[in-house]
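Study this:
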Amino acid sequence: MTLLARQTARLLAFAVALTACSRVATAQDELATAAIDPQAVDLRPHFEEGRGCRYQIWSLRSQAQSIQIGPNSREFDTQFELNGQVTWVVDRVKSDGSATCTMTMDWLTADLTGPEGDTQRSDSRQGRGEPETVHQLLRALTGVAVRVEVGADGSVRSASNIDAISRNAPEGIKVPDELDFMESANELALVPGVPDTVAVGAQWDQRFVWNHELGKLTESLRFTLENVDLIEGVPVAMATAGGKADLQPDLDRMLKDMKTEARVDVRMTDGSVETQVYFDLDRHEAIGRNTLAHRRIELDVRVQNHKVKRVMDETIHSQVLRIEEW
């Protein structure tokens, strides 16, 4: 199956999973029966101790690169596809409406397709996988309950117990840090940083800073509450977000990794993010999420009299779908 066909199939499956066997109604009387005022929609989490859900996660990172050294150049493409299931549980609710939650990776698979089209596959549920470093990382990540502190407005404040994952990983395997797990939690069950109530059509802004292999990535997004519908009697809000991404390169780290004196210039010439979130207004948690991000990064390196130019065009398509709740 081609990349385009696989992405199209994913989008269709995502839409069908959200609406299959459902009757969507937007009549005001039906929304009123469900006690939902379209002019005052509450998208904040309503935490209840012991409440939990399970999500199916998927992402596909496609990267097209070109490297030019003097008159010589080379182009190549790579893909990294991740599948898995994640369990989200509310452990403790505090008096201010915030909560301590746990996020556990139940299982993960990874498919890495190289420039020649060969694919290596790892599955955390299996004893072996390729490449071995990826397989070891997947196994270290699964089964560990990461504690996540979440504010009353859905903002992720911190993540902990990551040292348990580090202990699971063999020596030399670099595991994600706190900010990486905060990003994962931010894109799971929550609509982060939402106002107390919003009307259909209202907008609000959010800014996020995440890790990137070349430094820190800042996403400046504008959220819009698009509509509130009834799906089989359950009120569901649909919000969209879009905006720009910018890169703050960590030049010191890059120069340290190069282990030689060099002049480095890194810039993101294009960065965009678009996402749609479907939010269960009964349980006050996300049902599904679909996100598409694009980045173009240009990197110029001069070592003595040699100049290297590297261009990376990267597209990341990710989806989250709730498959079980209790």
About this structure: Residues 24-325 form a domain with the Lipovitellin-phosvitin complex; beta-sheet shell regions fold (CATH 2.30.230).
